[in-house]
Structure formats: structure tokens, C-alpha cells
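Team,

Forwarding the record for the chain on the shared tracking sheet. I've put the sequence and predicted structure together so nobody has to dig through attachments.
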Amino acid sequence: MSAPESPNAPPPVFGEPTPLGLLGLAIGCGALVPIAFGLLPSDPAKLPMMFKTAAWFCLLFGAGGQFLAGVMSLANKSTLGGTLLTTFSFNWVINWWVLDEAAAGRAADTSVGLAVDLTFIVIFVVLTYAFGFFSKLLFFFLLDIDALYVFRIARHFAGNVPALNWGIGLSTLVLMGLALYISFVLLVNPVAGRAVFPTSGPMFKPQAAK
């Protein structure tokens, strides 16, 4: 997710932080998968602890990991990657809060949630296009986030429809898988000196300078 550097660019302040953010994202998604698919405990008394457990994984890994990676990316002059990771990290704080409130039997306001989801879908559609200039993997990673928000928005209007819940669950699962794979590309391939995890070129090519 780091922007390419010019030949005269100063060396980065930190090592490549993107894998840190993506691993945090994957762990946060993993904590949400059972809830997203509706795999709730049969004993209602255990439900609050399930929500609280997922909430803390969202806060520490989803929010904490991505915030740290985002700030490091910005320090490395990677505006695009740093902006995405940092912005998304705050959304994971909201995930923590929503789950923590659910554990206490309180639900977040749906009208505010819908307004924010509509804002996010606009942001992520534009960023999907932008990241297509870096890699097909990143393009499909963002495209899956787009799909996730489409399902979330549809659920606001259609209600608790099983097909939409499964769509959210599958999108979360795919997002976790893509985040892990891209992390492995960035972590393992440079160490191995070869493409242990195959990657891809850009989806789009920038217009040549006149």
C-alpha cells in the first residue's frame, strides 16, 4: 500500500508497515466471523461474553494495529496507504464500542449507522480505483470492502435477511483471507528472494506524462 518512491526520495523512517495493519485487520475479521455468520451460543447467558471477547480483538488488533501501521505509513510519506489504514483504524474502534454496547444489551443508533455506511461506501469506491494503480490484489481487497458495505447498507433497508447476513459473513471471511495473503506477499517474498506467494501487477496504468 506504499506509494512508489522517486530516485531522490529520502529513505523511509520505518520498515514497510502495511503487513502489520493487514494482520491486525485479519485478526479483527477473524473475531467477527462467528458473529457475522450468526454462530451465536445456544445459551443466551454466554452471548455478552462473546461480544466482549470480539470487541477487545477489534480494539487491539483491528484498531491498534491499523492505527500504528497508518501513522508509520504517513511518516514514510505514503499518503494513500497511511490515510486508508488510519481512517479504517477508527472504524474498528466503533466496532469495539458497538460490540461492547451489545454485550450490555444496548444497540447503536441505526440512522447514524446508515449515514456513516453510505459515507464509507463513497470513500472505498474511490480508494478502490486509486489502489488499482498499485496492484490487482489491492484492487480486489478494496472491492471486497465495497461489497461488505453494500450488504450492510442493504440490511439497513431490508432488515435481518439471512442472505444479507451471509453476504456480510462471506465478505468478512474473504477480507480476512486477502489481508493475510497480501501480508504474506510483503513479508515472505522479500526474505525468500522469490515469489513464494504469487502477486500481480497493477489493474490500471497511469496516464503517461506529456
